Amino acid sequence: MKSLLLVCFVVIATHGKNYFEEYCWRDYEGVLPEDAVSGGLDTSGKLIFIGQVLFEGMLIPGKIFRNDKRIYIEWAGMEKALEANIKVLCSSHAYKFDWLQTSNANFYLLHDKILIKGGYEPNFFTYIGRIKIGETVNIGKVICASDCLGLYTTKNGSLNLYTHFQVLAYNPLMEHANVIW
């Protein structure tokens, strides 16, 4: 039995792909790691970072700002600022992230892409999305079931729902950074 396990281990070790995740979610308690991933710039030119929070039994993506212990999420049609159970997206290869233009009607065309799942809500797939309106970038959650419902963000404390937006994807073959909005 031991020799069979050893043979299996050797076969897997020599023939398996050398794969490791090049991004992770780290605990966030008010200090951003050096490799935190930015999703763009706000109206004042400050970086917006991509986060997620465990709230009401769900994992919800949102936005984090430097020198602010909170994460800002859309919840029940309003903006909610939370200070506990927060993680921030990190990578030493942030240039391998790509923002793909899509819409709720064409979301299914991205089936061959590695989309970043940013959260968990029962019966839904939750991805990270963003939109630029004027000079403002807004980050939020893309909610999909059998159909994609759209990008949910907040502005001035209330819900904004968009049907055309960008969704965050990972491209291991990407060699150059995308332009940050």
Structural features, described:
There is one protein chain. By secondary structure, this protein is mainly β. The protein has one domain (24-170). The chain contains one helix and 15 strands; from the N terminus they run αβββββββββββββββ. It has one helix at 2-15, and strands at 24-27, 38-41, 47-55, 58-65, 71-75, 78-82, 86-90, 97-103, 114-115, 117-121, 124-133, 136-144, 148-155, 158-162, 164-170. The strands form two sheets. Strands 8, 9, 10, 11, 12, 13, 14 and 15 form an eight-stranded antiparallel sheet that branches. Strands 1, 2, 3, 4, 5, 6 and 7 form a seven-stranded antiparallel sheet that branches. It is globular. Residues 4-19 have low confidence and may be disordered. Keywords: Signal. InterPro entries: DM9_repeat. Residues 1-16 form the signal peptide. It holds the Pfam family DM9.
Number of β-strand runs: 15
Order of helices and strands: HEEEEEEEEEEEEEEE
Question: Shape from CA axes?
Answer: globular
What percent strand? over 45%
Can you count the helices? 1
Q: How large, in whole angstroms, is the Cα Rg? A: 18 Å
Global mean pLDDT: 88
How far from one another are the termini?
57 Å
Main sheet specs = 8 strands, antiparallel
| Whole-number total of structural domains | 1
Which structural category fits the helices and strands? mainly beta
Spans of at least 5 consecutive residues whose pLDDT stays below 50 are 4-19
> How helical, in percent, are the residues?
under 10%
Notable features of this structure?
181 residues; eight-stranded antiparallel sheet; mainly beta; signal; 1 helix; DM9_repeat; globular; 15 strands; single chain
